[in-house]
Amino acid sequence: MSAPSRTRSLIVVIRNGLHLYRRDPLIWGGSLGATCALIAAIWPSIEDSIGKAVGSYPEGLKQAFGIQELDSVEKYVDVEMLSLIVPLALAFFAVRCATRALVGAEERGHLDALLSLPLSRRVLVAGSFIVTGLVLAAILVVIWLLTWSVGTVAGTDISASVLARGVANVWPLSMAFAGLAILAAGVLHRQAAVIAIATGTLVAMYVVDLLGKLSPDMEPLRAISAFRYYGSAVQDGLDVTHVLGLTLVGVVLTAIGAVLFDRRDVL
After folding, report:
1. Model pTM greater than 0.70?
2. Which of 63, 93, 108, 176 is the most exposed place for a label (fewest CB within 10 A)?
């Protein structure tokens, strides 16, 4: 019997990964979506006062945290959740998800058995990246649905399309860091080390972007931060070049990581 084709092997890896993470959209999407929904639900009670409060904020502070005018529920959810909490949480999820079948399986002693099958390491890496993208998209749909539903019931006149573009903007950022984690997995043998490097870079890039907004001297350094290209899709719309750029970064880093993972020894 001939070995299965790479396409068939990839489909099997993806199917297995989706089964493994089948509960995560409800767990991650439900928890983050419930928090976003709560933020949306309280908007009517603070709508009048929050606008006055924002007007008194220092201009530098408003620029640093992407606050322009908080005159809609979508902008309030964006500032409270989509500017920091949701992207950091889901980038961390993407890092863990993308490397579980690689260095995670290696640590548990499962990778040797898995690779004894007619399965290419590069197919395994590609499948992990694709599964991460699909599960992440499902989580974002749950977040959007919960937030929009509760906001509508609360009478906030929340816009489904504006909220959708803000939530969707999290996907390419998270996938870029999934690619970084896979690149690290191509060299390292411990998932904890991979996660530490990827999430450490994530936090460092956020800090660099924040400092660049606060200090003119630091502003040029924002070019090296992924958050410079994340922005606020709710307030400024989706920037297609930034979306494609971050996604391409994830794909390229994954491709390099696949080559490195294919060449290194498995413990």
Report:
1. yes
2. 108
